[in-house]
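Fold Annotation — chain and its backbone
Next Lines — sequence and tokenised fold

***
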Amino acid sequence: MTIELQKKLDYVYPCRESRLEVAQEILENPSLFSELILICFSPQDKNNHKACWILEFVSYEELVWLQPHLDFFCSNLKVLKNESSLRPIAKVVQLLVKSHYKENENGIKLSQENLQDCIEASFDWLINDTKVATKAYSIRTLYILGNYYDWIHPELKTIVEKDFGDHSAAYKAVAKEVLKKMK
């Protein structure tokens, strides 16, 4: 299994088509999904960031596949440091949190510990030196979580307002959007 997936990941390139192609192969071969998750959280693996790219695309289609892996996924968010891994994983965290709070029985069910791991990782990504896309996903994730944890919105507002002038137009657009919702 590992060798088959590693070979696929060796030939993944940053272009969307390449990532979609391998994501489709995973969707057609769900038995590869567990291995994909392991590679995502193995920073020493040369294909770690590529696995994260693929996980993001698979999650758009089959987020529920993550349900049995949530404890591992959430508890290992802190091991990721590579920006190419962080952005797609921050997006997956946002998808998980959105799904958890949806009013339907098909949503993802995150434990309190899972939610705490997501909160901690999102704040870490927001306050540390990560790129704007990771920060933007973190802001949106924390906004959602702040609707259920009353301490998050004040903290988020303080951080976003303090950092507002130091960031790009993309960051400012997301910050304005979320600050407006929090008022």
User: Anything to note?
Assistant: The first helix runs from residue 2 to 10. The CA atoms of residues 146 and 152 lie 5 Å apart. The chain is about 70% helix and 0% strand. The mean pLDDT is 93.
